[in-house]
Structure formats: C-alpha cells, structure tokens
C-alpha cells in the first residue's frame, strides 16, 4: 500500500472540511463547525496501474487545516511534508480565489515544487446550478478563469460540490493517479527494486522537530 | 401587591417588583439538637458545634410566582448582561446586544475612568437596589457584569474572570499585549473569529441559563463509575506510558477522558501537578461546544492557551472521539509537532481499553438517581468533595417528552436555587462565614390559583472543610429535622461511595 500525505488549504468556510467529510464518510453536514487547529483523517482509494492494469491501493493521510486567519502561521507545519495540497476556494466568492492563489504562491516558494502535487478546487458548485432556482447564486468565479490560472501554474483543477458530492471523488482519484505516476518513476529509477505494482512502500512520514512551546500564532 | 394581576400581565407588573429579595437573616428557627444529630462527630473539631449553632439561620424569601412540580420562585425576565470592552472603551462583546449596548459601553468606560482619576482606585462594584454592576479591569480588557439576580460580587467577578480566561485561551496574554502595545485603540472585534463569539455566547449561556455549577463551585463534575473499572482505565494509561519508550519526556503533559455532559472520567498527570480548574473548565467548554458532533474518523490538533497554567504560551491538544462511549480523549503537549507521538499513544491506549471492554463500561456508567439514596424529602442535591475538587449530583429525571425549552427552564430554575443556597453560606467576597457553616433557606408564597400549590420551598447549604452540600427539598417540606437527617445520609452515602463517585489520584507519572 502506498501512503501519501495530503493537506487542505483555503479561506475559512470555503468547504474544506465538507469536502474531506464527503470523501471520507460520504456525507454532508449543513451546519459544520468552523475548524479550529487542524483535523487529521485518513482514507484509502484504489487506482489502476496503467501498465500492468493491476489495482493499487493508496492511503491518504489528510490534514484538514483551519482557514481562520488566526491559524495561518501554523500551516507550514502541515504542508511541509505533504505530497499533495488541495487548495480550495468557493465558486460564489471571488476573494476566496485570491486567497487560494496566495496559498499556491506560498506553497511554491516554501515547498520543493516537483514533489508536491497541487490541486485547485472550486467548491459549492451546487449553488450555481439552475435546479436550486431561488437559492441559485451567481457564479463569481468563472471556470475558465480559474482553469486558466491553474494551467498556467501547472496545477490540477476541479470544480466540485461537497453538498451533492459531485466531482469530489475525482479530485482524490486524479491526485492519487498523479502521485502514483511520480512514485512509479521514482521506484523505477532506484535500482535494486522490483516493479512498483505489488510492493508495499511507505512514504515515510517525517516528523518535524522544532520545539516551540510558547508560540502558536505569529 | 395584587397577585392576580401580576399573574395575568407578566411583564409590566414584574418590571416594577423587586426581582430579588435578599435573605433576611433571622434568629435560628430550627430546634435541631446538634449534640444528638451531628453526623460522625469524631470527624469534626470540638468548636464545630458552636460554629454550627452560630451559623444556622433561616432566611425567608417571598415571591409571588408559582409553577408546578418544583415551583419557580424566580422571575423569568432575564436581567443580566455581560459586556466586554477594551481599556480604550471600544466594544468587544455583549451577551445581549441591544440597541443601546454600545452607548452603554461608552458610559461605563467614562465612569471607570472617572473613578481611576478622581479616587485613584479601581471601581469594582456598584449596587443600586437589586441591581449590581461588577467591573473587572484586566488591562487591555475591561469586563462588566450587570445583574439583578442576586449573585454575590464574588460570583460575578469569577464569571467575568471566566470570560476573560476564555479570551486568553484563544489569544494568549502575550498576543493580546502585543496587539495593544502597538495600537491602544485597536478594535479587537476585527481580530476575533466567528468561533470566538460563538464560544463566548456558549459560555455566557452556560453561566446564566444552564445547570452549570462548575464555575460557582470551582469544581469539575465527575463521572460515577465502578472503582475497578476506573482503576483499569488508569492502569491502562500508566502502562501505555511505560510502553512508549520513544515518547520523549515532556511530550505528554496531561491526559483526560471526558464523558458526555462534560463529566471527568479519568486523568493521566505528572506527579505533583494538576491543571487549574478554570483551565479545565475552558477545555471542557471547548469540547462540549466544538466537538459535539465529532466522529471517530478524525483526530484534532488544537492549540489552546491555559491561562492559569501559562497565560503567555500555547499548549496543544490531541483530541479524539472514543467510539462506543461518546467520550473524548484529550492528550496535552507543550510541543506543537507532537501530534504523531500522541496519536500513536492514543491508538495503542484505545486498542487496549476497547479490548478490555472498558469503553462499554464508560458508556454504561449512567450516574445515579436521587432515589438511590435513602434521603427522604430531598428533591435534588449537589455534593462537592473538596479534596477532589469535583462534585456530583443526581441525574435530572425528565419525562421522555420534555422539550428542550422546558429542560433549559428547569436547569435555570435549579441553578438559581443553588446559587441562592450557595450565597446564603458564603460572604460577598466568596469566603465561607465559618470553617463550617450550615444554613436553611426558605422561599414562600401563597397559591395564586386555587388549583395551584402554595410555594414552601426549603433549601439547605452545608459547608465544612471536607465537603460542600447544597440540597433542594420537595415543595411543602418544612421539617428541618428530617432534612438534616437526609443531608447526613447523603453525606455518608457520598463518602461511602467516594472512590466510585470521584476521580481520585488518576494515573500518575
Ligand atoms: N451549498 C453548499 N454548501 C457547502 C458546500 N460545502 C460546504 N458548504 C457549507 O459551507 C460552510 C462551511 O463549510 P466548511 O466545510 O466548514 O468550511 P471550511 O473550509 O472547513 O471552513 P474552516 O474550517 O473555517 O476553514 C458549511 O456551512 C457547509 O455546510 C457545498 O458544496 N455546497
Ligand atoms: Mg473546516
């Protein structure tokens, strides 16, 4: 089994916890509490090895961080060792995309770019569909704009709804596939190893080692 | 006063009547023979009898309001507010945020400054009739309580201290002073998050509307469970700690299992150190409000400042929901990167205690009922063991169709009774009148409607160096002998079951 660390970043209330919850529990909670600190969850998925057509099990260890400004300075602790980052914005809130872009920049400057898969995710798509009639909100972020930005920056891009579940699985699936491709290359390059498919490889979770008892925020 | 009218027109009538009638200290009206009835006399010093005789008194409170079962003698109108502002006079928070509140804060600020300048002393308390203002100046924050409900000044101060402690737990003293040293008239509302306001609301509602004696008594509620099961839990905790050799020293400071309704189930702590009750109250509030719908799929890593432990620094809490018993495991560290160490500790511990069936035992620990104790005519009580800094009380027995509003009403009523009983045995500064002190208190009124029972409520407060007992009798009971006997039975029952009712030492390392 392959194990990857994944971190969610983005402004408060864009729906990070809701996306994770949809992915892990396949449920949605209308009245989710804003996250304080961070939440750790895990979930496995299966992907197919394109060469051998074998099933590969991937385990995600997920850090769902708090979007509140107060916790911003804690974020490096969570993304430092991540293999993938989900940077989430709310498709009905223009400034949440700006915040997301801020995170992308931070990740690119602070984390070795080639190791990290970044996926830009626009959430709450359900609010903009016609079905909801009265509750329908204008879409503040055009897909093409966000997608253009994602392409420019070399990010994966998805639009989802944690509420209906639309697109959520695909986000993790595509991240899993991409990480697997990376890993496979890495394994192929390192001699003395057998083919990747059936091996059990643990991507070692590094434990950061700073000792700072006195500061949480800033 | 025309009772019928006040019954009909609730609000207008009641606004004019005193909301709280202070206890009238009367000559002792009881004729309890102390020599005969003293409970376990050997445990008390000799002067106790005198002290008790001195302190037994009876208070009458008349109030023309009747409801069924345990009657409510307290007005429904809610005359209480908490305000928080900056030392520069900028509003931060108001429990009840009416139109005039902001202007109000300006006035308060002016008054406080006036006293500072003119009298060169801090304003602490203003009383006007039944209304009392209490001020707590904690530069750069000022907290004000306004109440017409008859709390002692000390109780109001401690409530304000609780609110202040919450702000510190969220921001830390250091961060607060950093903010205000740069800009004295900083608007702190911009810095607080929506969760802070929600948490403040929740704490205020706990303090003012629920049966939450924790703050009043400065104690934690404990989960009653079989002695052997609690011992097994503590043993499992200790063993896990010995097993985890690579858990660096100091990584784990403190561990707790908290059962539903914020009952303390077990503790893992270093020798000679306990966390301050206020810090634990804050932690429990956080657990209660924030993590109620936690499930076992997630583990949380939460920075929290424990103001009484160290107001300047943050500790980190590993928080995990325990399946099968709806309880929460909390592990506290001073290191912000200790999550995976604590997670591994928790994983092993949980595996261990679930294989022993202990999670089910926590779930089965259902507390006790008043009927479990042979204490005739007692409706409800709170017993605090001073040694443990914990209290117990019988479960509220509710009909299955009790609406949430009715529950709140009931809790508020109980709480008000207990506040008044408590206040009848402590001075305004919160200290007991004597080392030991026993007092009966009465609330009386005639029936308003023929169908209703008249109110004749009797309460008892009893404080000694070892325990505190507060009890409420059934309506209509006035036999103090019987109640005194019942009180003694409750005490001996609680003592007898001490190791089951309270968390004693815990697992110590
Ligand atoms: N309509 C709709 N509402 C959503 C969706 N996702 C989340 N929400 C709602 O948006 C609010 C915030 O969602 P959260 O998942 O708590 O947001 P968050 O990003 O985790 O917020 P923080 O924990 O504060 O950082 C909640 O009330 C959710 O119910 C969605 O896809 N559609
Ligand atoms: Mg969240």
Automatic annotation (TrEMBL), chain A:
Name of the featured protein: Roc domain-containing protein
Keyword Nucleotide-binding found: yes
Record CDD domains: Rab5_related (cd01860)
Pfam families documented for this protein: Ras
UniProt organism field: Zygosaccharomyces rouxii
Keyword Chaperone assigned: no
Gene Ontology MF term list: GTP binding; GTPase activity
Major location (coarse): membrane
Family: Belongs to the small GTPase superfamily. Rab family.
Membrane-protein topology: Lipid-anchor
Automatic annotation (TrEMBL), chain B:
Protein name: Vacuolar fusion protein MON1
Organism: Zygosaccharomyces rouxii (strain ATCC 2623 / CBS 732 / NBRC 1130 / NCYC 568 / NRRL Y-229)
Pfam family, one: Fuz_longin_2
Record-annotated FUZ/MON1/HPS1 second Longin domain positions: 251-349
Any one Gene Ontology cellular component term annotated for this protein: multivesicular body membrane
GO biological process: autophagy; protein targeting to vacuole; vesicle-mediated transport
Protein purpose: Required for multiple vacuole delivery pathways including the cytoplasm to vacuole transport (Cvt), autophagy, pexophagy and endocytosis.
Keyword Endoplasmic reticulum: no
FUZ/MON1/HPS1 first Longin domain location: 80-202
InterPro entries listed in its UniProt record: FUZ/MON1/HPS1_longin_1 (IPR043972), FUZ/MON1/HPS1_longin_2 (IPR043971), FUZ/MON1/HPS1_longin_3 (IPR043970), Mon1 (IPR004353)
Membrane-topology descriptor: Peripheral membrane protein
Cell compartments where the protein resides: Endosome, Multivesicular body membrane; Prevacuolar compartment membrane; Vacuole membrane
Recorded superkingdom: Eukaryota
Family from the record: Belongs to the MON1/SAND family.
Keywords recorded for this protein, A-Z: Autophagy, Endosome, Membrane, Protein transport, Transport, Vacuole
Residues covered by the FUZ/MON1/HPS1 third Longin domain: 378-498
